[in-house]
Amino acid sequence: MSRWWILAASLAVLSQPAAAQPAADARQEVLGTVETMFRAMRTKDTTLLRSVFEPGARLVGIRTRADGTSFVQTISVDQWVKFVGQDPRPDWIERAFEPVVQIRETLAQVWADYDFHFGSTFSHCGIDAVQLLRLNGRWMIVSIADTYQAAGCPARPKP
Fold first, then answer.
1. pLDDT tens for residues 18-52?
2. Termini Cα distance of the chain
3. Which domain holds residue 98?
4. Can you tell me the distance from the alpha carbon of 133 to that of 102, in angstroms, rounded to the nearest whole number?
5. How far apart are CA 67 and CA 70, in angstroms?
6. Based on the structure, what is the number of domains in the chain?
7. Residue 100 falls within a domain, yes or no?
8. Over 90: is that where the pLDDT of 55 sits?
9. What is the pLDDT, as a whole number, of residue 100?
10. Is the separation of the CB atoms in 18 and 102 below 8 Å?
11. Which residues lie closer than 8 Å to 93 by C-beta, 6 or more apart?
12. Are 101 and 27 in contact (CB under 8 A)?
């Protein structure tokens, strides 16, 4: 009889997902860092924008030249912050949808569909993959890789 109890208990433990979801507070902290980045982009607050990035962070994505060929664009966080601050277009509004958050110790990743608008004008959509490290008690963005798609995006309400 005791063997059945041990087997049942073992199966119950093994059937539970092992750390399938990060702790709610850590998940909120990670998503809060990404949301702070979006808010800083929208308001063009370069001080706030820079505050969520580790100084050596990189932004990487596939882009398309005028002739239709693709290339990998890699820019530093300094280049990107400067561009955001100087861009004359209206509010940069980026929205993430259904983010998947993975956290292990001091490493986190957010993978999410996104759309991007200049003010109320749609620009593009894609996938954001944001990597963060927990440094001195704060989640800092160390890398962003994204896709860029101007057509065939999901229909969503305007911001």
1. 444 558 899 999 999 999 999 999 999 999 999 99
2. 62
3. 22-146
4. 12
5. 9
6. 1
7. yes
8. yes
9. 98
10. no
11. 38, 41, 42, 116, 117, 118, 119, 159
12. yes
